[in-house]
Amino acid sequence: MTSTVPALDTRPAEGSALQAVFLDMDGTLVDTEGFWWDVEVEVFARLGHTLDESWRHVVVGGPMTRSAGFLIEATGADIGLADLSVLLNQGFEERIETALPLMPGATRLLAELAEHQVPTALVSASHRRIIDRVLASLGPQHFRLSVAGDEVARTKPHPEPYLRAAAGLGVDPTRCAVVEDTATGVASAEAAGCHVVAVPSVAPISPAARRTVVSSLEEVDLTFLRGLMTQMR
């Protein structure tokens, strides 16, 4: 699946201003934020370095270039960004081959959006090769398109990923709801003008204008998402 899949019928449901829903992947739909950190710890251990647990909050939710670059600089490891990215992606792929736990409420929410034909996009900082593997488990039929971190010039926290998704579906980003789990993703969605539901996975996120914070996807359904459009104008 690529970020250029043609949009289907993108008309909002009758009586609702909600035009589309955009969903982050790691830590939002799949419980894999911990996988990335574990892989980073293992890879750097092989390079002879120990990662400080406090760095986990720095790298969570960020693009590979930022996270890997930070860890190289912080540890002084003798490895280039390109080589490290390969090792991290390989390690992550090995982990999701054996287990891909979904976040509570993810399956139900995706099914509900599909049942009501709400245009839905997966928007992730992960690379395309990772997204396609995860989509095989989530069900690619649940998404009209997906946007990967290595398919945009500027990934999260820049608004480009969400603006790309809105353009691909032919919708107004200000009439879209985004579900994210990290401050990096929230910043990206808000910069694009979207209404945001934050479901923090590792670090806390505070409520703000056009941003609602919940503790679990179990609290999010279509009625909730439609309500954001009228409550937060």
TrEMBL record:
Gene3D superfamilies hit by this protein: HAD superfamily/HAD-like (3.40.50.1000), Putative phosphatase, domain 2 (1.10.150.240)
A Pfam family recorded for this sequence: Hydrolase
Organism: Streptomyces lasalocidi (Streptomyces lasaliensis)
Listed name of the protein: HAD family phosphatase
Cross-referenced NCBIfam families: HAD-SF-IA-v3
PANTHER family found in the cross-reference section: 2-DEOXYGLUCOSE-6-PHOSPHATE PHOSPHATASE 2 (PTHR18901), PSEUDOURIDINE-5'-PHOSPHATASE (PTHR18901:SF38)
Domain of life: Bacteria
CDD domains: HAD_BPGM-like
InterPro entries reported for this sequence: HAD-like_sf (IPR036412), HAD-SF_hydro_IA (IPR006439), HAD_sf (IPR023214), PGP-like_dom2 (IPR023198)
